[in-house]
Amino acid sequence: MSVVRMLRATLVGRTSDAENILTAVMDAGLLHVRPMRPPEELAELHSGTRDPLDLARRLERARATIMSVASGDRQAPGMALGAVVDRVEHLAEDRAGLQAKLSALDANIDALLPWGDIDPEDLATLAANGAPVTFARLTWNDWRALEVNDIPHAISQQSEDEVWVALFGRDAAQLHVSPVRLPARRLTAVRKERDEVRAHLREVEATIGSYRDYAKAIEGRIEELSDRVQVLRTADGGVQDGPLFAVQGFLPAENQVDLQRALSDFGVVLRFDDPEQGDPVPVKLRNVGVFAGFEAIVRSFSGISYWEKDFTAVVGLLFLVFGSLCLLDGGYGLLLLITGLILRRKGNKAFGDVFALTGVFSVLVGMLAGQYFGLIVGKDGFLDGQRPPTTLASDPMASFIFSLVVGMLGMTYSYSTAIWQRGWKTNATGSLLFALGVICLVVGDGAPEQAVALVLKRAPEHVVAQVSAGFDYAGKGLLGLGALAWMAFPEKVFGDAHVPNVAWTLYSGITGFGQDTMSHMRLFGIALSGSIMAMVVNQIAGLFPTVVTVLFAVVGHVFVYLLALLSLYIHTNRLIFLEFGSKCFDGGHTWYSPLRRGT
Predict the structure, then answer these.
(1) Where in the chain is the domain with CATH 3.30.70.120?
(2) Residues β-bridged to residue 134
(3) Which of 79-83, 192-196, 225-229, 238-242 has the lowest mean pLDDT?
(4) Side-by-side strand order, sheet with 133-139
(5) How far, in Å, are 67, 321, 350 from residue 479 at the CA level?
(6) What is the H or E stretch that residue 505 is in?
């Protein structure tokens, strides 16, 4: 389980051979090419777009235009594919112009609507006769503050907040209002033109839709060009200087010889270097066995920086634990297992493995909790006389306390992972000591008997008291050591200012541990809500005849399971990548994606 070691490869060859060289690189499928910025002196020589790239862009635009409208009954006449692309491009231009015109007409209508169908010629006549009209849009407070008793006016429209007023005469210009400038058109004329533009737009879109039958042919042509386009785009990302062409990328160190062999027929220079810190190195993970599928979870969220250790196994373990606790039901665990197997059969091996493995783990946790499809062992007539190994399903308080225990252990695990990732000279050391101190105090104060029972079946009270005192002393000592470690290695939030960094680390370390631990209560909440819904389904199903009971129970439990699966995926990953991962994962990545054929 590791991040695969990568090499930076620089390839130099003849410009005349550039396409053939890159085609060979594509066939090898090893080099993750990155764009190169040409030096200023080579900027003008940097290759530009070429015909296949332009054609691919035109085809993609034509396909997007055709698929953006609904297909109708109209069918376009038989045409060559090139003529179809030309025609659709012209139609797309017409549609864009009509849409812009329609937006302008809608804006004019919105501006005229509050005033009604006013004739601009009437306004000009009034102005010529000494009674110009001032249109104003005011708040009610501003309107009440105006002294307009001696000025002819009319309220055109009003709402709870505003009033639209027409003021007549030259005296209105002296008022402190911001006049509204109206389009010099009648509302009816603008509406008529809008209807005409809409009709024209519908006709254009219907014509575009008539070319829907050509969409598959266009897609096929795009597919035919895809490999050629990849080569040309890669060439455009290289640097050319006269007769020489250069391109740079990354490949796994183990494939160095394979790339050399693929280019053996060309006169090229290949140089391999180890990446430098800060290089945008693509990431390729190597996980085998049960944890390989959890790479899909890592890819979906934070990713992995090339410069940090592979934490896929850590994520996998946490997903199994948190996911199974979110379900806390052996029956739903079985459904999760079946879901994973279906996904594998459908070709989604990564998530199929994740769900199948989590389902197996959930079945085991459900057996420990004694709950199957909302039925609790020993209760409500289900397996009377039997007792489950734990009371997690039957005692909400026990489940609540257990979620907090999981939270404290999870955060301890997080700080340990941070030390593994970054070394012990970080604030994670203080956080780990502090977390261990809190755990010792909690055990010493709340569960000394259980701690003793791990070693002795029966212990005198004075032994229990001594163990309690021992945990208390150890906890206080670890808290003190944690504070000292925070002072020695604070989180550098304020640069090199040591005292502010220490103050912040002490504050955030203490409050952050409590906050992140309490956040694990969502495990208790999700499990409890799912259990309640499952029990409700069972109770309602029991009110019907047998056939209806079975049907209702199946549909109801599938519905509850889907809700539980959604909560499981969202909240499990939230705990992993926020509360847990923010302490020990850097993330940020470019996944290894070599230049290769589209097939």
Answers:
(1) 1-45+237-282
(2) 167
(3) 238-242
(4) 133-139, 162-168, 153-158
(5) 64, 28, 42
(6) helix 498-519
Range 317-353 burial, b when 16+ CB lie within 10 A, else e:
bbbbbbbbbbbbbbbbbbbbbebbeebbeeebebbbb
Q: Which of 453, 452, 411, 403 is nearest to 435 (CA)?
A: 411
With beta carbons less than 8 A apart as the criterion, state whether 414 and 519 touch: no
Total Cβ atoms within 10 A of residue 269: 11
Confidence of residue 41 (pLDDT cuts 50, 70, 90): very low
Burial annotation 542-581 (CB, 10 A radius, 16+ → b, else e): eeeeeeeeeebbeebbeebbeebbebbbebbbbbbbebbb
Task: State the Cα angle at 330 between 326 and 332, rounded to 5°.
Answer: 65
Distance (Å) of CA 429 to CA 141, 353, 462: 63, 35, 34
In terms of pLDDT, which residue wins out, 553 or 153?
Answer: 553
Distances (CA, A) of 326 to 358, 360, 529, 538, 577: 11, 14, 10, 20, 16
- Per CATH, the number for 1-45+237-282 is 3.30.70.120
Tokens representing 483? 């504070």
Instruction: Give the whole-angstrom CA distance, residue 433 versus residue 448.
Output: 20
Provide the H-helix boundaries in 129-275.
Answer: 140-145, 187-209, 215-236, 256-262
From CA 334, how far away is CA 341, in angstroms rounded? 11
Backbone angles phi, psi at 60, to 5 degrees: -65, -40
CA angle 193, 198, 204 (to 5 degrees): 125
Percent of the chain with pLDDT over 70: 96
Q: What are phi and psi for residue 80, nearest 5 degrees?
A: -70, 155
Classify residue 56 as exposed, middle or buried by CB count within 10 Å of its CB (0-12, 13-18, 19+). Answer: buried
* Residues of the chain by 3-state class (helix, strand, coil), percent to 5: 65, 10, 25
The CA distances from residue 118 to 180, 190, 358, in Å, are: 14, 12, 70
Which residues have CB under 8 Å from 582's CB, separation 6+? none
Sign of CA dihedral 440, 444, 450, 455: positive
CA separation for the pair 517, 575 (Å, rounded): 10
User: CA 364, CA 368: separation in Å to the nearest integer?
Assistant: 6
Integer Cα distance of 566 and 191 in angstroms: 49
Q: Give CA–CA dist 560/537, Å, rounded.
A: 9
Task: Please report the sign of the dihedral spanned by the C-alpha atoms of residue 94, residue 96, residue 99, residue 100.
Answer: negative
Instruction: Give the three-class secondary structure for 392.
Output: coil
pLDDT in tens, 194-212: 999 999 999 999 899 888 8
Neighbours of 369 (CB within 10 A): 28
Structure tokens that stand for 410 in this block: 């999870």
Q: What is the mean pLDDT of the chain?
A: 87
CB distance 47 to 232 below 8 Å: no
Among candidate residues 466, 385, 481, the one with its CA nearest the CA of residue 429: 481
